[in-house]
Design goal:
Mean pLDDT: 87
Distance between the termini: 62 Å
Shape: globular
Oligomer: single chain
Number of helices: 12
Bound molecules: S-adenosyl-L-homocysteine
Order of helices and strands: HEHEHHEHEHEHEHHHHH
Largest sheet: 6 strands, parallel
Length: 260
């Protein structure tokens, strides 16, 4: 208990781990939800989000959570991944497989230094997929960066809660070491005026606006979209849009539509 208090309050006075959402998407087995709650609590995390779980609440989840029933009781259950990510400024997607058009994959340690740094600006999330099918391309498209736990090439798929444990452990190490670690200086712009990153919903609003505008202009044929929108997501994902930049881009789109 004492150790957790030290970790959670030593990051420049910020409750860093409190800003981390662990998001499980479309989990099939309630046992994995319970085991996730336990993995989180042992590492000092508490904010569990469940997107369309097959069965929750469930006595199997309670049993597997053991002493982490409070994390389960506080879990937010939502219907869509968009709802779980609303308001976040950085989202890591946990994926065992390489997908077409994905951004370069991070290893957990690097992903976690980015998460810890972004957590000073707002909420951050780690998203885990369904046990059988993993994350869909649409789900991956909503996330800032894919993260892969390096495994044996013979078998790369960890149990869901085991994958959560690896990331939560890395988060704890990062939070413990953060004051002298320079995570912020390593990955975020420095200076007196550090621009505010756009939130997940602001960036999604821009993508929706872009899609409408390029359909209206005739550039995108909705019957034959090819891979245009995923490519645009990848481009702007690399750019890490700031609030002001989203406003400018949307202003540009609006000017095209209004002046047609
Ligand atoms: N058969 C699925 C694996 C699902 S395992 C697939 O091929 O994608 C359930 C979830 O655990 C995954 O969606 C992912 O979020 C996480 N996971 C399992 N192994 C992982 C690994 N090696 N790296 C990153 N995430 C992993």
């Amino acid at each position: 208990m004492k150790a957790a208090e030290t970790v959670d309050s030593n990051m420049n006075g910020q409750l860093t781990l409190d800003r981390v959402r662990i998001v499980l998407s479309r989990t099939s087995h309630p046992g994995n939800i319970g085991a996730t709650a336990r993995a989180m609590k042992t590492m000092g995390l508490s904010r569990l989000w469940l997107v369309a779980p097959a069965s929750f609440p469930d006595p199997v989840a309670d049993a597997r959570a053991s002493g982490a029933g409070d994390v389960l009781a506080g879990a937010q259950v939502v219907a869509t991944l968009e709802e779980a990510l609303a308001g976040t400024v950085f989202v890591a997607a946990l994926s065992a497989r390489r997908r077409e058009l994905s951004l370069p994959r991070l290893q957990p340690r690097d992903a976690v230094s980015e998460l810890v740094a972004w957590s000073e600006k707002g909420d951050v999330a780690l998203v885990f997929g369904n046990e059988a099918s993993g994350l869909t391309n649409a789900e991956l498209g909503l996330c800032s960066r894919p993260v892969t736990i390096p495994t044996s090439p013979d078998y790369s798929s960890l149990n869901l809660a085991a994958a959560v444990q690896v990331l939560c452990y890395e988060l704890r190490l990062a939070a413990l070491g953060s004051p002298g670690r320079g995570a912020e200086s390593a990955v975020l712009p420095q200076g007196s005026h550090v621009p505010a990153p756009a939130t997940h919903d602001e960036v999604e609003g821009f993508y929706a606006h872009l899609e409408t505008a390029i359909i209206a202009s005739g550039f995108l044929d909705p019957e034959n979209p090819r891979r245009l929108l995923p490519r645009m997501r990848r481009l702007f994902g690399r750019a890490r849009l700031e609030k002001e930049e989203v406003a400018i881009l949307r202003g540009i789109l609006a000017s095209f539509i209004d002046n047609k």
